[in-house]
## 1
Amino acid sequence: AQSVTQLGSHVSVSEGALVLLRCNYSSSVPPYLFWYVQYPNQGLQLLLKYTSAATLVKGINGFEAEFKKSETSFHLTKPSAHMSDAAEYFCAVSDNWDKIIFGKGTRLHILP
Amino acid sequence: NAGVTQTPKFQVLKTGQSMTLQCAQDMNHEYMSWYRQDPGMGLRLIHYSVGAGITDQGEVPNGYNVSRSTTEDFPLRLLSAAPSQTSVYFCASSYEGLGEQYFGPGTRLTVT
């Protein structure tokens, strides 16, 4: 059975600092992995996805994530936080194209 | 393209009432799905459809019905609303399975 765990329901970083949002997954088969972002009062928007090609995946808005099979992790990073990055971020895992499981989300706060 | 549209944006129901949440997409996507989002719970899949005439249950299907008579529309029906169904509901569509999805703006439902 697949599952996903996001460490930290709230993360605060200073503007210009490194953003690191953690995601660990469980899957019985090679997974598809995703990060979505949700801005206030909006639906989710895909940031990036891993589908068994390159382990380092680059997404929109300067975000990237690295698939580490040995650690069953797919952490999201951005070198320099911007105020506009304040949002809720969701990691998701799918074993196939019919089921997807979302993490509980991490709210990112940017401190001026 | 309008993308994924949802109506209404807000709705208040009394316990036992019925209603239909509307969802439409104009991207000719085969896959459509409904989620509910509750604080601290992330998104949970209610029902999904892999094409017109085909639907299946997700993680939390009880109390909800769906049908898919056309590629464009995927309504969600609450037959007898309960306070436990107070939530924000998101519809999503995708070209390839449930992984890379486009989300609507959501419907905020309150059941009293």
## 2
Amino acid sequence: GENVEQHPSTLSVQEGDSAVIKCTYSDSASNYFPWYKQELGKRPQLIIDIRSNVGEKKDQRIAVTLNKTAKHFSLHITETQPEDSAVYFCAAAMDSSYKLIFGSGTRLLVRP
Amino acid sequence: SQTIHQWPATLVQPVGSPLSLECTVEGTSNPNLYWYRQAAGRGLQLLFYSVGIGQISSEVPQNLSASRPQDRQFILSSKKLLLSDSGFYLCAWSVETGYTGELFFGEGSRLTVL
């Protein structure tokens, strides 16, 4: 089955700097890659996703890139702000599957 | 609008006791329903998912079970809890027409087994 690895487990950046979180997946049939953000004490929420027919997607300060050949995808946050502090999860799935497999999470701390 | 309710929010149970966590979704019909467990450093682990009443798929062999007695109700159970069952349990739903992307999570149930 699908396995998703996520790095780093913790990341501390200065406010205004960029943050990058990387994930690799094992199943080449996976074609949907979302990212979820979980603020302290709250439920995970989708922040951005990408499908395998595109290599990059942006939404304001957030971008996701996908390299299908290498089977890895990354989340990029620019101009980080304290409210970006949270745990971020990557995930992978096949469109034909009901199973979304998550990475182990990255705790991002943005220092003011 | 769609909402998801999960309870209880917090539970402390002794080893060997039974468990029942309940989840209901409102505002949609025939949702796909999921139970995930979140353990420290291990991310979100898929435990069960259901695409319809009475249809349960198990992803991790363990002493937990799931049931879907009604279209928008999903229950996580155990007959005898283990210490290793401690964790944060999240119910989630997605739209009926195949896997179209977003999972909507409940607020979670924190289980501590002593």
